[in-house]
Specification:
7 helices; mainly alpha
Length: 177
């Protein structure tokens, strides 16, 4: 019996193991030809499940990054780099909406992904602000609703205060641009 550390001889490795891209093309060809019995079902199932997890992880990452930068905007006493945080929030909001348009089924998972994202976003915000000698008290409960995370017109009040103090050009909505 072989151990996990032993490699199978090349001749015993499946196309899936030897050449993933060629395997994908072969599976697509088989599907198009209708020869369903020739499909590599075990690996297809694994890949389809991985694709779903990947889409979900991408959405969660965008939520987490939006929360991270909203937190920095709301809780950092520093006036810089507010524009970088703003740009990141806008980018992540676009990414969230794009992923939801392409994958409407993820809408039902939004609340859970949002809830799971906050502890890590908070931890990252604390670490990033600590690197700049900042130690604001960031609540353990998320101070932003999912609606606010997605709302392109929502900005934490601290951002408006920074703009009012002359940290940037003030728009009619009081948002530093």
């Amino acid at each position: 019996m072989g151990t996990v550390l032993e490699r199978k001889p090349e001749s015993q490795c499946s196309l899936y193991e030897r050449d993933y891209h060629a395997w994908l093309e072969e599976q697509a060809r088989i599907l198009k030809s209708g020869q369903i019995g020739s499909l590599d079902i075990r690996n297809l199932i694994e890949e389809i499940e991985d694709m779903g997890r990947s889409e979900e992880a991408g959405l969660q990452s965008a939520i987490e990054q939006a929360l991270l930068h909203l937190t920095k905007l709301a809780f950092s006493p520093s006036s810089d780099p507010r524009r970088g945080c703003q740009a990141s929030v806008v980018k992540q909001r676009v990414e969230i909406e794009k992923r939801l348009r392409r994958n409407p089924g993820l809408q039902s998972k939004m609340n859970a992904l949002y809830q799971e994202s906050w502890p890590d976003a908070r931890k990252l915000a604390i670490a990033e602000m600590a690197a700049h000698n900042e130690s604001p008290a960031i609540p353990s409960e998320c101070p932003f609703s999912m609606k606010e995370v997605r709302d392109e017109n929502y900005w934490p009040k601290a951002l408006s205060l920074a703009a009012a103090l002359g940290q940037g050009r003030r728009s009619s909505k009081g948002i530093d641009r």
